[in-house]
């Protein structure tokens, strides 16, 4: 019998303890990958379309004055922006009554905190990420030192968590400010939180998005060429404008990528 006709029906019989997908030749595997790639690209485009719809979500004004406790004392919601235009607030559960207290925060929240990427890249897109919980600042500082976390983390002192749907379960609330006026623009929780951690996942839930020219955003939204704003996380302050060599390298790569996309 022709080996190629039976190859796709064979399964790996090893020590895994379960029936695996068929084991095929490199050529057959590449064909399967290309078929899957069509669906992968469709998924990416659908994700971009969803993010574009988020950028057109209505806003709601934050009228109440909220107070948090920080390392240097009491601060307002406006202070949490740290002067930037956008703010993402993650409600983490680290407080008496939560499993793990006082040595640890909630295991799920802790797993999420371990995924948070270097915040300098998010900050470069005029966006601040902060964590909030009800633990005192001394306990938060101790936890951050133990776990190696560096994100700003504040203590809740009022009904912020209840007002924004995170008094009983974790979640990300997204805000934008116009001067001193603050607006709530988006909210995700439950399985929506699973993807959080990368600069892209955070920016995709904000009102302004990734702020790159390829995005479908309302007219007048801030946008810059993709890749050009990227930098080493310790070099943003030292190099305010895009490096000429990086512009050359990234432009060449982008041209190659777009050419490949046009051929598929």
Secondary structure topology:
Blueprint: H1 3-7, H2 26-54, E1 60-61, E2 67-70, E3 73-76, H3 77-80, E4 86-91, H4 107-115, H5 119-124, E5 127-133, H6 137-147, E6 153-156, H7 160-163, E7 171-178, E8 181-189, H8 199-203, H9 244-263
Parallel strand pairs: 4-5, 5-6
Antiparallel strand pairs: 1-8, 2-3, 2-6, 4-7, 7-8
Keywords:
264 residues, alpha+beta, Glutaredoxin, eight-stranded mixed sheet, globular
Mean pLDDT: 93
CATH class of the domain at 60-203: Alpha Beta
How many strands, which pairing sense, and closed or not: the largest β-sheet?
Answer: 8 strands, mixed
Strand content: 15-25%
CATH homologous superfamily of the domain at 60-203, by name? Glutaredoxin
Parts with pLDDT < 50 across at least 5 consecutive residues: 1-6
Shape: globular
And the CATH topology of the domain at 60-203? Glutaredoxin
Order of helices and strands: HHEEEHEHHEHEHEEHH
User: Percent of residues in helical segments?
Assistant: 25-40%
Give the radius of gyration: 23 Å
Instruction: Report the oligomer.
Output: single chain
> What count of helical segments does DSSP give?
9
CATH architecture of the domain at 60-203: 3-Layer(aba) Sandwich
């Amino acid at each position: 019998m022709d080996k190629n006709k039976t190859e796709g029906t064979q399964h790996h019989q090893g020590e895994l303890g379960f029936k695996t997908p068929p084991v095929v030749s490199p050529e057959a595997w590449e064909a399967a990958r290309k078929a899957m790639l069509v669906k992968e690209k469709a998924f990416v485009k659908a994700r971009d379309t969803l993010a574009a719809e988020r950028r057109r979500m209505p806003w709601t004004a934050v009228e109440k004055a909220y107070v948090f406790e920080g390392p240097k004392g009491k601060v307002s919601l406006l202070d949490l922006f740290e002067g930037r235009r956008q703010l993402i607030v993650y409600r983490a559960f680290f407080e008496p009554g939560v499993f793990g207290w006082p040595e640890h925060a909630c295991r799920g929240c802790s797993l999420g905190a371990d995924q948070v990427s270097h915040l300098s890249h998010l900050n470069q897109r005029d966006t601040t990420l902060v964590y909030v919980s009800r633990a005192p600042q001394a306990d938060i500082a101790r936890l951050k030192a133990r776990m190696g976390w560096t994100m700003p983390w504040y203590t809740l002192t009022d009904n912020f968590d209840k007002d924004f749907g995170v008094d009983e379960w974790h979640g990300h609330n997204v805000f934008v400010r116009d001067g001193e006026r603050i607006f709530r623009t988006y909210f995700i929780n439950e399985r929506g939180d699973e993807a959080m951690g990368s600069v892209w996942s955070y920016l995709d839930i904000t009102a302004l998005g990734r702020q790159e020219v390829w995005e479908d955003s309302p007219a007048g939204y801030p946008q810059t060429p993709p890749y050009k704003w990227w930098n080493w996380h310790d070099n943003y302050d030292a190099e305010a404008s895009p490096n000429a060599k990086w512009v050359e390298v990234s432009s060449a790569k982008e041209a190659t990528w777009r050419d490949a996309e046009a051929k598929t």
